[in-house]
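INFO batch 0412 | record 1 of 1 | parsing
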Amino acid sequence: MSKEKFSPQALKICGITLACLAIMFMVAAVNRSRGGEHLVKEYTVEDSLPRHVKFEKMPSDDAQLAAAWYFKYMGLAQFDRCVRLFPQDQLESLNFGQDDLNFREGRYIKEYIIHGFQTLATVEYADQKPYYDEQASRYGFKEYKVVRVDFSQRWSDKALEQAPQWGDGTYTRDFAVGKESGFRGKWKIFELGMM
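INFO prediction complete | emitting tokens
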């Protein structure tokens, strides 16, 4: 029986092939961890409780994307998905269960038009910075951004009968969004500013 030796070139090709396979598997794992849901410019649901969400401008980074998901989920009455956007111990105060009940009873925002996103410079929220710093630290975020969203909203007729605090119109709202630590850290909304 004779022993065959592998040439250095064959070993090099084999090593490069294995390295390429490893890189492909890592890229696939990262893409898989990001999930399959993608934000699109417009959503319309036409049923007994019609809803519409439109993004005139799309978000440009992950912090802005977190705010965009908030509008998409709230506008399409996907309240069960909203919980992913916030730190776990904030969920009780947000009361998505009540939002769901109001929706089922026909009292809901039937249209959001998002006009644009802006990530604020620190000087633009300097008066709130100590509070945001404290909250970000509390939730374990090492970095955060404040995202300003300009949008219009339109309520259902049944909701307007009860005179909501902020009726139909165009508004601006700030979102403080922090990044979880770790390789796969997600951006979470830890403060919803007043409109």
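INFO post-check: The chain has seven helices and six strands.
INFO record closed
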